Batch of 3 targets.
Target 1
Amino acid sequence: MKLCIQCKKENPSSANHCMYCGAALVEEEQLPEEVKLQKKLTEQEEENKLLKAALEAQLKKETEKPKENVVEKPIVVTPPPIARPAVTPSPIAKPTMPPRPKSNKKLIGLIVALSAVAFVVFGSFLFFAVIRPAIIDKNAPRYYTFADNVFLRSSQEAGVDYNKIATLSYGSELITYEHYFDWSKVKDKSGNKGYISSDYLLDYFDFSILNGIWGDMESKQCINTAKCRLALLNYLKVNALGNEWQVFCRPKNTKPNAVFFPRLYNKNSKFTDFAVIFKNTQTGERKIVIFGFNDDETVAWTKSNDAPNSGYIKNIALNYYGEIYVDYSE
């Protein structure tokens, strides 16, 4: 059987045009799905019309018969549901949001890494160049020069001029990094670093004792050698004399004076002997102390005796019996 495209009626398979409307015919299998569905709907409607007509004829026939007391329920014919083509709802398009700006994570990471490296480098430089040296200087011991015109040198070599950095005066405070028997590595108040002979350095305690010996400026000027100053310091420490014992001199090269430099036992010794008058500033008591030196500037012997309450040393010599005789001026 063939089906008309226009009226959707069936025709013999041998026909090419519809016998009802003259439209073209096609095989039923070749019809589109919508046409096939429409055909089924048309057939269903025709069947419903036939059923409805039969029902109306039956009802008309029944009405013509005499009525009986039996009440019959009406016959309800429910037509089959009409098949409708399935319609797939189109998905609701979601609103398009504007794209978020892309964050450059690699650039941010690079910046953070470079900042961290810069912080570490700057922190290391600050620590090793500023903080660490300041801590070392703060904790380093202090030593003091007790001689005049001491040279700070760039190397541990004395008696030459090429390695002189600075000339240090009496009482210069030095930050001391290394202190050995012969040389000490120090830094002066101007920031100069170098080496100085340990023979000219005293710690704070000893320097305080020595500096307390000078009763006036003249006494320090008259006793200006390192060996004589160390002899005075050691004498006070060994004899446990307090800081009330001091030396008072007249101007340098003035005679007689409170200091004297004789040659007593060895006329050919490398160094002269050294005599000085000490005075107790609390009691007024005075005593004379005489030192002899070895060739290495250490004290060879020491003699002391009471001195008159006034006067200076005019002369010192040995008497007929080999005893030391001191002549005091009025």
Note: The chain has a mean pLDDT of 86.
Target 2
Amino acid sequence: MNKEILLTSEAYGGGVKTHIDSIMKYSNHSIKMVVFGEDDINSRDSNIVFVGKGRKKIFKFLTGDTLKLSSIVKKRKVEIIHAHSTFCGIQAIILKCIFPHLKIIYTPHAYYSQRPNLSYFKRRIILFLEKMIVKSSFKIIHVSESEESHAINNKILDDYQKKSHIIYNGVKKPKSRNGDILSKKIRIGSLSRLNEQKNPMRFLELAKAIQEKDSKHNYEFYYGGDGPLKENMQKFIQDNSMEKYCFLLGHIAYENIEEDFFDKIDIYMSTAFYEGMPYSVVEALSYKKPIILSDVIGHKELYFNNGLIFKLEDQNSSIASDIISILEKRGISTLSENSYFHFINRFEIEKNISLIDEVYKGE
């Protein structure tokens, strides 16, 4: 019988949820999932247990919630725990002190130390904790080459040739690929939580700059998702009279992602400050969407002559000119085919989950 794997996560949403759902659905192992989520989510899956309220209450998360998790480890005789985030990694270290036999597999989904604007003191503490997690872990699964490079360059990971596995996030082929269906307007979209990491205000700034550069006003902009920056985005759109060409779509349920989002756009743009390996961009490739991405960890491997990658420090007017130029010179159809070719070669789900299974087997 295959060994049972215990997955832990701070939350059950966004890209982490997609990643975990994929493992649970396609893995050949028996999977038990424990979520320390901030939100109460009703799940009918008996293999998912919701515990605690996430790391907003950090002391409780690392004490009481860890004790709850230890009872699950003891009861189910867990041998392998797969921690999805830095804070779950710290929790796994505590568990390993209680259960020395426990093997830890760690997937950071973007190291916390990748975050911009961390103070020197806070960054040193985070790097120390991440080094502890990696040292205590049996294997590390990085979701991009650039994520692994961050770990090596910051000396989080020393023996990377033995411990580190690069396994890209994967998705299924969509039943229909609508990349060839274009409207009279060129529709640029993004889909993410509206928070600081995803940098959605920069998306709006670029939308404004593109509209000002394009004399024919051929562009429209769509942003799907919800989060703490929603009111700021609404105010920016109103203050800059962008209501006729820039639209906030609100929360989009994953099961409706094709109809409610990808059918509405021709090009996908992400302005994120940092990433692990964003599922929304991988899905954009599967739907044959050209991409416009900020030049950050987690985006680099998604670019394959299929759009544009830009530096966040560049001026909005310069980036806007480059976007308009690349679309006019290369054409959306050619860029679309390049995106889909890249998806087929690197991001199909079955292949990627089989690689995770090999890690679970200790291969």
Note: Residues 4-170+348-360 form a domain with the Rossmann fold fold (CATH 3.40.50.2000).
Target 3
Amino acid sequence: MPTMLAAILRGLGDVVCDEVPAPEPDADKALVRMRMASICGTDLHYVYHGWPRNAYPMEPGEPGHEGVGVIVEPGASGLPEGALVLTVPNIWEARNFAEYQAVSPRFLLPLPEGRPLAELMMAQQLGTVIFAARKLPEMTGKTAVVIGQGSAGLFHDFHLRRLGAARIIAIEPNADRRAAGSALGVDDALDVTGQAAVDAVLQLTDGRGAEVVVDAVGGHETLNQAVRMAKAEGHVHVFGLPTGFDPVPFDLSAYFLKRLDVRTIFGAQDEPGLPSFRQALALIAEGEIDMSPYVTHALPLEQAADAFQLAREPSGGALKVSLTMEGR
């Protein structure tokens, strides 16, 4: 039986790379030889918090969902053998952290030419931001706060400006990520967190707060900060994931008295035709956004544990950490 290397999550914080049986060709799916897969904040929630799934060991390659690869067996995809594709499986089918995976055709998009694979791979994260932004109010002339400047926060900076935001305030304690936000043109890059961040936003907005606050981190601390930073009748955009299954303490008083609109985002991969990811690919291919600064660290699949640790505690300028499958 053919084998492959795959990252396997054996338990909380326990990631290994091992040799496992490769998936067999499936008439309903395409067999893809993976080239690269990047680590998303969602993946960190699986690995270190056990959310949203925690049955161990997980399937080989799970929960990777941001990747690029080559069609080996087209199956029902209609794509030619050898085609380069973006692989964006939803969380139930995500197996990107492996040399091979069988992918339902609805999670595949052919890649345009002219840009490095690593940059095109960022269409997955940007696509989720584009999808999420449909729940935002009209942004023209508004002030927005973005909590967290990982790739999700950075791509919110980019897209909020495209939507017309007049002022963007970024909150990020990591100096490299804060600098990346400044390079994208945020108006204020704050290195404070917690209540100090709330106070800073209120000071910058003359006590009113921001019309839109994006929580690109997740967890009850940043959620409640977002509620306190928001202007009355403002919008809180919950993009970051919970850190567990326990109920989250929530500042209901501030939420209620401010008459806030709080929205969550989920399901970009399940849109028929993947329109948000198509738009993201077009923006990258046409040079509307330069992705070269963001894929900063690529480690071989065999070093999956090190890659996850670096993504969790970024250093050395790490913005987006990826795994490569080119070793064999």
Note: The first strand starts at residue 3 and ends at 11.
